[in-house]
Design a protein that fits this description.
The chain has 189 residues and is an alpha+beta fold. It has nine helices and five strands; from the N terminus they run βββαββαααααααα. The protein has helices at residues 32-36, 65-74, 82-91, 94-102, 106-110, 117-131, 143-155, 160-168, 176-187, and strands at residues 4-13, 16-21, 24-30, 43-52, 57-62. A five-stranded mixed β-barrel has the order 1-2-3-5-4. Strand 4 and strand 5 form a beta hairpin. Mean pLDDT is 83; it is low at 133-139.
Length: 189
């Protein structure tokens, strides 16, 4: 298994990165923050998770070893594979993901493609004891309300990351209209 790569970035094509290591190019999945911090030709070092199935061999790269360990924890959750886990890392840093698990913040996870509310709750329930989290409040925002809130904020041109941050920082006990107003106020519109 490959655990670490050190070389130069020769191609960056979201969500992939090709790293030249002594004349061999390794195609590696990487989160958006890793991709955006790398310039072509620059030297880099990535900790690697090697995913092997009968028909696929994929590499997932992380700039910090702690992010690799968190990624490996996340993919232990039933229903969450490496591609979904790397999408979670594109939604936030390792520290933000850990905080979302500790705070039982379902909204952080539920806006990620291929990861609905049930899997978001599953991630929190499965990992909260491993990262030191509190009990999950399943009462939060209902799916219908959340979808309405997300689509309204997307209509204003906000990214999923911005929307999740706004939802986390607004009062969920109010009506959807009030939540939209509060989220827009939070986001500065």
């Amino acid at each position: 298994m490959i655990g670490y790569l050190s070389g130069s970035a020769i191609i960056r094509d979201d969500p992939y990165l090709i790293i030249d290591v002594n004349g061999v190019g390794y195609k590696t999945h990487a989160a958006s923050d890793v991709l955006s911090s790398i310039s072509i030709g620059s030297n880099l070092k990535l900790f690697i998770y090697t995913h092997v199935r009968e028909d696929v061999l994929e590499l997932y790269g992380f700039s910090k070893y702690s992010d690799l360990k968190l990624f490996e924890l996340i993919i232990t959750v039933p229903g969450v594979g490496p591609r979904t886990a790397i999408a979670i890392f594109s939604n936030g840093t390792g520290d933000e993901i850990t905080k979302a698990i500790i705070d039982a913040d379902v909204t952080f996870f539920s806006g990620i493609p291929r990861l609905g509310t049930k899997n978001a709750q599953k991630i929190i329930i499965e990992l909260k004891n491993k990262v030191g989290g509190r009990e999950l409040d399943l009462a939060g925002v209902s799916n219908g309300e959340r979808n309405e809130l997300v689509s309204a904020l997307k209509a204003f041109g906000f990214t999923t990351k911005e929307i999740n941050e706004a939802i986390r920082n607004t009062d969920r006990a109010t009506s959807v209209e009030e939540q939209i107003k509060a989220a827009l106020k939070y986001l500065g519109k």
